[in-house]
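Because discrete structure vocabularies remain unfamiliar, we first show an illustrative case, written as a sequence plus integers encoding its fold.
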Amino acid sequence: MEVHTSGLRKLFSITASGAATRRFSTGFEPDVVGHGQVKPESLVAFHKLLLDVGFCGLAPKERESAPGYIVITAGFPDVTCTVELPDRKWDKIPNAKRVIEAARKLEEEACAQGCLP
């Protein structure tokens, strides 16, 4: 699973083992990279949520004009797709809101021990 945030140039990713990486990039200075860990049960719950909300169906047919985008890529065997929505839409579409909130919780869990500022 990967979450790209265009406005902050942030990438948060989790592997199947629960190993998490968060990378901040300004484009001018070296990237700031940190590592954390997500519990297996948290990853299982996120996977179930993606199935429950029909995650791949959240992808719009056309790209909208927007100042910032959040892109979530899921790479589970039965949920493999990328959903790219304007920042504001993630909190306005009910099922998308459930996904972005769960992704934020995974990031909090992974970085609870201070993986990055």
Remarks:
- The chain has a mean pLDDT of 87.
- The CA atoms of residues 2 and 13 lie 4 Å apart.
